[in-house]
Structures are given as structure tokens and as C-alpha cells.
Prior knowledge:
The protein is α+β, with helices and mostly antiparallel strands. 49% of the residues lie in helices and 12% in strands. It is elongated and about 210 Å long.
Amino acid sequence: MSSDSNKKRKPKVIRTDGAPQESKRSKADPDQDVKYYSEEAEVELRDPNKDYELYKQTCQELQRLMAEIQDLKSKGSKDSAKQKVDAYHLQLQNLLYEVMHLQKEITKCLEFKSKHEEIDLVSVDEFYKEAPPEISKPDITLNEPHQQTLARLDWELEQRKRLAEKYKECLANKEKILKEIEVKKEYLSSLQPRLNSIMQASLPVQEYLFMPFDQAHKQYETARHLPPPLYVLFVQANAYGQACDKKLAVAIEGSVEEAKALYKPPEDSQDDESDSDAEEEQTTKRRRPTLGVQLDDKRKEMLKRHPLSVTIDLKCKDDSVLHLIFHYLINLNVMTVKTKVTTATEMTTPISAGDLLSPGSLLNCLYPGDHGRKTPNPANQFQFDKVGILTLSDYVTDLGHPYMWVQKLGGLHFPKDQPQHTVTADNSLSASHMEMTMKLLRTRLQSRLALHKQFASLEHGIVPVSSECQHLFPSKVVSRLVKWAALPYEDYLELSYTKDVVEAGLAEDTHLYYMALVERGTAKLQAAVVLNPGYSSMPPIFNLCLNWKGEKTNSNDDNIRAMESEVNVCYKELCGPRPGYQLLTNQLQRLCVVLDVYLETESHDTSVEGPKEFPQEKMCLRLVRGPNRMKPFKYNHPQGFFSHR
């Protein structure tokens, strides 16, 4: 290559003004310009032939290398190298997979749960205590937990085999017993008709021996349809009658079919609906019920009684009977009772004895304060407000009285601070009150019958005094009872000489009130009597007013107050033989006696001519005593004289 060609490769830049133009690169990099000009100088200094030879040698070397590369490619040496790499990579992948597999197996082993872990094995101490040595192998298992577990599993298997054998034996026994039961069932099914025929044939014997087994069985069949409170009353009254009171009779009355219908669900069907639609079409002209009629229907539904009732008959020694009919009000969840009295012989009814045996007052205040006018269930008042019922007392004539003792006999308890609509019947509550209540009922009937007989004599002016009580009075009593009549409660309140008793709270509208008039000559003694429903355990109370030489009462005459004290305070002397049913007549007789003493011990007015109106016939130690001029009203038997208390 010639130097001219080298010069053409590196032309110089000539400016238009004739001066050589410097390139931009030379301005930016002076060293580059130096190098450029040195290469030019080197080109001029080098030998072109040598450069050509160098170029030729270089091209030949490149050709040799390319041929060698071609030769290597043709021999496949590059592919064998890749195969080695692939083989090593595959071996690596295999090793990694094997490692991963081993890790999974290790995890499985660590997480493995054997079935024996779910078995509730016996404790180790119990195992060594109960298992035989050939299974427990204590010399081996005590030091090796694995062998110990295997031995415990063997013992568990042995026990289960024994239990399986026992289970098979029990199944066999069960099958045997079932067969025996089937045989006995067949025998019993054939026995029932025989028993029925025997019971039917034994009815005359039962009636003769007073052992009505058949009737009792029917009663208990009917009792299954009683509501819980009436059922508790029926069971407890029957039990008490059998154990303690042979004269108590219990029975169930009412319609069993109606009782069953109460628990039947309503039957709804499309046919019924169509029938009702047809009826509505036929009765379109009928007027709708008014609001008042609707309220009346709601009240009747609210006060609805259960179709079945329980009756208890209490017989007394004189063959009189107290009939108690217990009802259950379904929606109010309370019990009521209605009463009736039957006497052995027909009794004459005195006018003043009208309220003694009346159903409305016979059982008033059997327990103190229990008048039976209000419902004992606090929840009922909310029900009454919905249908416009003010109080239950307006309906007790038809429904009966809801006494508290009636609720307790039915096992019902109503807490005052916890109103409840649903109250359960408690057998223990009924049993705890049964005996005392029956005794109080019988006592109430006997006391009222005794008063009934006494009133018949009192209305005729006769004060009956039994022979056992004759010693309480002198042989001669001049004052006589001339009147005995019932007194309305309102009239009693208007009397001027009864205010102290009313203010003391001893006169209530549940009590009975009577007016007695005792006379001797011109003296007339009025006695207003308060008869407590609990007579004779609660004594009658007398208020006196003497009309003689003016009106004398306890407010203006100390001796009248002393006469009241003789009959009211000293009543225990007048009770007579137990149970003290003669107390009232003895008090009236004592009243006649003290009136005699009062009149006979009065001083005689000497200015009046003629004999003394009330001559002294009673023997008195002292006529008067003290500044109040108190008279001797106490009678001393058997001496027969009167003294001061």
C-alpha cells in the first residue's frame, strides 16, 4: 500500500480563507490532535510492504482459526461439553428431589399419630397392678417406654376380648328375658278380661263391705283429665282421707268429654272454610254484635271454668255434711269454692240465723283476713282491665270464692312481688295445709250449727244454759232476754256506744252483728254484739246501753264499763266444756245476772213512796267499793255470793 493512499485516508481540512480548518474534536481534545498527527507521521515513516505482509499474515491467521473452529464444530466437541453439563444438572436435580422426598418423609414421621393414642388406656399404676406378669413384663417395660406401650395395648386387647364375651352373654340373657316378657304380656292380655269379669261379679261384695274399688278406679281414670291444681287437690285430699279422716269423701264431677275437647287442636280444612263462607253469605243481613256484647263475651271467656270440678264432703259426728265444690278458672289460673250444708234432720231456721250457713259468709275468714272477695293472683288485674272487670267480688256468687286456703290446697302460690301468668301446682304446699284446713272447716261447720240451734232459742227469749255451765250462774235470775235479732253492719256503725269498738278495728264488714235486749221492770239493757267469723276461738264483743233513769253507756257510767268487762274480758270463765260453742249463750246469761246486780245494788230514793222496784235478792259482801262506787259483779260458786274483782 502506497503512501499516497495513506494520505487520501487522512485528508486535511482546508478553510475557505486558505488556512487549514481545525476540527471540532481537535478543539475539544488537544491530545487527540496530537495522536492524529503522529499516526500520519507514522504512516509516512512505515514501510508499505511490511504493512502488506503484516496484513497478509493476519488474514491467514484468521483463516486458520476459522478453519480450526469449523473443524471443532464438525467433530462435535461442543455438544459433548453440553451433555456433561446436562448430566451434572440432572444429577443435581435428582439429589434435590431425593432431599425433598426425605424431608417429606421426616415430616410425616414427626406428624404421625397412631391409633393407640385415641384409646383411653388404664393408668400405668393400674396396669402393673392388674395385668398378669406375662403381659406386663415389668423387667423389660419399666425401662423401655415403647415396650411398655405395647404391653399396655396387649392388656387393653385382652380386656376388650373379655368384655366382648361378657357382652355376648348379656345379649343372650336379654333375648331370654324378652321372650319371657312376651310370654307374660300374652298372659296379662288374656288376664284383663278375666279381671273385668271378676270385678263385675264382685260389685255386690264391694257394696256390702263398703270397699268401692271399681268406683275408685273410675275416679282415677277421670282424674287424668283434671287441670294440675284440681288434680293436686284430688290426690292430696284422697290421701288425707285414707290416712287421717275416714269421714272425708272426695269425688270428681263434670263432663269428661268437654275436658278432653279443651286439649284438642282446632281442625282447619278448606271444606270448613268454604262452609263458613257460605254461612257468611247467608247471614249478610245479620247485624254485627255491638261493643257491649263483645265485652260480655270476653268477660265470659275470661271467667271460664274448667268442665271438671272436685267435691269434698266433710261429715260431722251429728251426720251433718259440709259440701265443698272446687272449681278452676282456666284463664285466671285461680281456684274457687262453693259451699252447701246438709243436716241430718230438718232444722227450723231462725230469722236471725240467715247468714250463719249462707254460702257467702259460712267460710269467711277461715284464716285471719281471708275474706275471699279479691283474686289472689296479681296478674289477674291486668287481665280484668282489658275486658272491663272492676273486681272479682261481683262474680263470686256464680264462680265461688277464691280464698287463699283454696289456692294452697291446689298447690298454687302467688308471690305478691312477682306477678306471674303461669303458676305451677305444688304437691308439698297442698299437703302442708290439708290437715289444718280440714280441721278448721269441720270446726267452722260445728260452731255455726251450734249457733243456729242457740239462735232458735234466743229468738223465743230463752237463753239455753247446759247442765255443765249451771254453776256459773246463781239459781235465780230475774232479768230476761226479750229480743234477739240480726243487725245490719251500717246500723251497727251508727250506734253511739259502739264507736270505741269500730275505732279499734274490731268491727269489720265480714263479721256478723246482732242486737240483744234484756229487760227487768222499767230497765232496758241494749247489747250490740259483734260475732267474729272465727267463733268460738274468737269471743263475741258486747257494747251495752242501759235505758233506766236516763241513757247509760260505758262513756258516762263506770259500772256499765264493768259489766262489759264481765262478758268481754272475763269470757274464758264462760267458755264451758270444749270446744266452747256455748260461749255466746253464757255471755248473755251473765249479762242478765250483772243487770240484776246493777239494779239491786242501786240506792232507794226515800222520797218516793211504795216498795222498792228492785229488791235485793243477791247476796253481796259489799254493795259498792271505791270512789267510783263500783258494784260487785263477780259470782262466787259454790258460796253463792257476789264480790268485787
